[in-house]
Amino acid sequence: MLFGPGGGATHLWYLCTALVKAGADVTLVCRYAHAETPLVKAHKEIPIRLITTPFARNRRLYRLSTIWALLVWPFLFRGRSYDLLYTWEISTFTRFLSLFVRRQGRVLLQRTGEPLDDDACFDPSLEKLLDGLVVETRPHAEAARRVLTRNISILALPHMGHCVSAPARNGNRPNEVFQITFLGRYHRDKGIYRLLDIWPKLNVGKAELKFYAWGAEQEQLRSLIHELGFAGQIQLHDAYSTAGELTEILAKTDLVVLPSETEGLPVVLLEAMAHGVPFVATDVGTVRLLAEDNPDVRVVPLDNQALKQAIEEMVSAIRLGTVKSDRLQTYYRTRYGHDQLCRQWTDALLNPEQPSSGK
């Protein structure tokens, strides 16, 4: 399910690129693929084989898309035997795709988002399909181990973002009009309306809030901004889709804010750190890991007052120069460096005898 230029699709882009460079032959299959998803646009350049359906760009026809895949894809896969199925879905459709994996091949499930609750469970008949599970962090892995009924391999690997060529930050002096940026999706779960609640109460001097995102709630948010009289201070933009676009955005950004209500380990926060831009984020999923031994970010409870206070503290610290961009970039490279992640991902998918683990 490729919805647009989000973190998951960005990760797949870099993962496919790394696998192809390592000599793999990659086929990407999807029953829904938004036309503006960068990976869909770039698949021939990587290059990978892309298989969809005539209904792949219309989510309302998802059931027809599934039926088409079940009937037609076997002919498209004919004569091919895959060594690995890497899937973000565990369902009866996973069983269908597993039919095209050779007998000695593997099926790896990617689990994203919040760590699994202790009362979560997989369908036992589907769990039997899995040879391994990939999660974003070690706390995710620990939670999954409590849930799984079989002793399968669990790998903890963060996703890859637009971090491969992030330039060194040019100094720590903020803009005269302080620039706060939201990156992600126009969706209530991402806290976009929470930011509007906080904005008029912030004591940060001259500042602007800019959204660079995609999603169905963009126009609703735009209307609310005008209704509240914030049009001169808050701007809405479309999402970035390339590393160059993101670098241009972050070069003008003083602080990234992500007030999400649910997350795993957000790619946008890794991208911000890679570019030396500090952030304030809510303590959901495993975001708190990014604040360990990291004085240049703030992770706070999911509470408007806590967010307001953290934003004010960070704005003050950035203006005083106590937040160091070079230190933040070093933190990123040491723990989540792009080359390091590429190596771990290719080892995990292509060389199972050399297990990888993330931070």
Description of the structure:
- With 359 residues, the chain is of the alpha/beta class.
- The protein has two domains: 168 residues, Rossmann fold (3-Layer(aba) Sandwich), CATH 3.40.50.2000; 159 residues, 3-Layer(aba) Sandwich (Rossmann fold).
- Helices cover 37% and strands 17% of the residues.
- The chain has 13 helices and twelve strands.
- Strand 4, helix 5 and strand 5 form a beta-alpha-beta unit.
Chain-wise SSE layout:
Blueprint: H1 7-21, E1 27-29, H2 38-42, E2 49-51, H3 62-77, E3 82-87, H4 92-98, E4 101-110, H5 124-127, E5 132-135, H6 138-147, E6 153-156, E7 178-185, H7 192-198, E8 207-214, H8 218-228, E9 234-238, H9 243-251, E10 255-258, H10 267-274, E11 279-282, E12 298-300, H11 304-320, H12 325-336, H13 338-350
Parallel strand pairs: 1-2, 3-4, 4-5, 5-6, 7-8, 7-10, 8-9, 10-11, 11-12
Helix pairs in contact: 1-13, 7-11
Q: Would you state the CATH class of the largest domain? A: Alpha Beta
At CATH's second level, what is the architecture of the largest domain? 3-Layer(aba) Sandwich
**How many separate domains?**
2
Shape: globular
Separation of the first and last Cα atoms: 27 Å
In CATH terms, the superfamily of the largest domain is: Glycogen Phosphorylase B
